[in-house]
């Protein structure tokens, strides 16, 4: 199977390239890149790690598959000693005191982090324009957005600045930028990968996940970073997904899709037509296809944003400039909190915090927040029923092509609605992959909870027929 | 309570875009099932880590101090709190 990780691993052990040269080349590309994907470069530590890998190879020792492989990290992950800014003024000079579990697993496997990647601040956005470092430019057409919130990560992989990147997905923030930049992006089942060390946005849907150029690379990285972690009590033990296991997709007999996703006025005609053509190709292979009912798009978007804003309001209440962050002193303690937060949070972040606090407050919480929780339960029940009828569900990733830089900021509601196809799977905590085929912004494949392997099987099968 | 006080954000205002999302929820149909009935998120007692004090490494403590917005002789400087 195609794999950038395996190719580079072979080149290293065959001494066709040194790790130092590899890392130097990628660092240079990152430095010179005009897509605004870099928040901070980890040059010194990367070169130090690379020389250790070279010394190991030179002395005849074996190296692991991920050893020496350069990767990127969305700038919401803690990596001890590096700045983790969340692309925000509040944390622009904040140094991580510890390392996220998922990142530590990659370091233990010998992978080399090169860069903290630009993103929407605290994950708040679908375009990577909500950032103090400047808007991320799309890998294919730089007048368009990189997507978000893991825009920097997706662009870096697409442009081969990194071999893979670790993004974060709460409502689509890995899958959508992956679609916008023609790469694979995987949001695993919630709880498969530890969130310890990931700056929390909406804790009940936040997921760690890989962005890669191949299914095999996504599988390799996923296996490395998955696992139960006592520091994150929502994690569970999962079995590794074996390479041989995904070569055979006989287990998949029936595929579903949501009719209302295609009946919406919002969907671009070409994306719709390409999606339907993909469905026909699947049918031609003898797989049964079922059109399923689902919740209205505005219900899905509103449920997601109600719950996510409430959770982010709670999670970001810790950011007040007391122990860390860009404190702006006021006349007294409350003023200090109030001014620090007002001056340092972006408009979008403030919008979400305010909205979240509104729905949690007395007089609103019954009508809105609790109702949102109830809707979420219904959505989850709906998925359970669907997966009794179908093995996987297919969906477009986005209703439209990436917007031009600047357009999303004028219309936040339009930006929220553009998440219509990704948020449902987030609320269901389902494993969902974007693959860069089938429509201009890719296809989403999802399966029941804990069925991450099935998603990979189907993706592997699908990539050869469409 | 106004939203700027609720959020501890000076000058904060509600947003029309966000309010329109909330309207959808208000008008949505839900079933009569009480929420949370399917949730079983409790953690088993033997799934917890050992109840021992774990001392953070020196470097972690060093970086925490480096991050202090205002520092004096290794201590975090904060506003004086006066009861209102």
Write up what this structure looks like.
The complex is a heterodimer of chains A (466) and B (84). Chain A has 466 residues and is α/β, with parallel strands linked by helices. Helices cover 42% and strands 12% of the residues of chain A. The longest helix of chain A is centred in the C-terminal third of the chain and has 25 residues, at 365-389. The two termini of chain A are 17 Å apart. The mean pLDDT of chain A is 97. Chain B has helices at residues 3-7, 16-27, 58-66; strands at residues 71-72, 75-76. Chain B is flat. In chain B, strands 1-2 form a two-stranded antiparallel sheet. In chain B, a hairpin with a 2-residue loop joins strand 1 and strand 2. By secondary structure, chain B is mainly alpha-helical. Chains A and B meet through helix 10, helix 11, helix 12, helix 13 and helix 15 of A and helix 1, helix 2 and helix 3 of B.
Brief write-up:
The complex is a heterodimer of chains A (466) and B (84). Chain A has 466 residues and is an alpha/beta fold. Chain A has helices at 4-13, 19-32, 43-58, 101-108, 151-158, 175-180, 215-225, 259-263, 269-284, 297-315, 333-344, 347-360, 365-389, 407-410, 412-417, 420-427, 452-465; strands at residues 38-41, 70-74, 112-117, 164-169, 184-187, 207-212, 254-258, 288-292, 392-396, 432-435, 443-446.
The N- and C-terminal alpha carbons of chain B lie at a distance of: 17 Å
The rough form of chain A would be described as globular
Helicity level of chain B: 25-40%
Give the assembly state of these chains. heterodimer
Largest sheet: spatial strand order of chain B: 1-2
End-to-end Cα distance of chain A: 17 Å
Low-pLDDT segments of chain A: none
